[in-house]
Amino acid sequence: MRKRNHVIPLHLNRRELEYLEAQVKLSGQPREEYLRTLIMGAQVRPKPCTHHADLLHKVAGLCNNANQLAKVANTYGAADTSSVSEMTAIAYQVWEEVKKNW
Q1: How much of the chain is helix, strand and coil, in % rounded to 5?
Q2: Which of 40, 41, 29 has the alpha carbon at shortest distance from 4?
Q3: Tens digit of pLDDT for each residue in 76-89?
């Protein structure tokens, strides 16, 4: 048996339908899921761009490097200058990527 067995017909003019289809395309969701999300009061956000995966990978690398640097600093009482410089360069690269794409 279907979970959703109530059908609600909806009449739209051309402009409304074009707007709906554009919003659905931006969301990356099927039309029915998009409308259900709106009805339930949730905010529908655009589907992430393709460069988001690359950015997340860079941020994960940055966090991993920060953890390694902190571990070295805690173990030996200090971290070498090259590690700190590399960490700073990676952080700057991620920051530039975020500024460029958002």
Answers
A1: 70, 0, 30
A2: 40
A3: 877 777 777 777 77
Look at residues 35, 56, 57 and name the one whose alpha carbon lies nearest to residue 44.
Answer: 35
The identity of residue 77, as a single letter, is G
Q: Cα(5)–Cα(50) distance, rounded to whole angstroms?
A: 36
Residue 15's pLDDT band (cuts 50, 70, 90): very high
Helices (H) and strands (E) in the chain, counts: 4, 0
- CB of 69 closer than 8 Å to CB of 88: no
Q: Are 58 and 97 in contact (CB under 8 A)?
A: yes
Backbone torsion region of residue 93, taken as left when φ is above 0, otherwise alpha when ψ lies between -120 and 50, otherwise beta: alpha
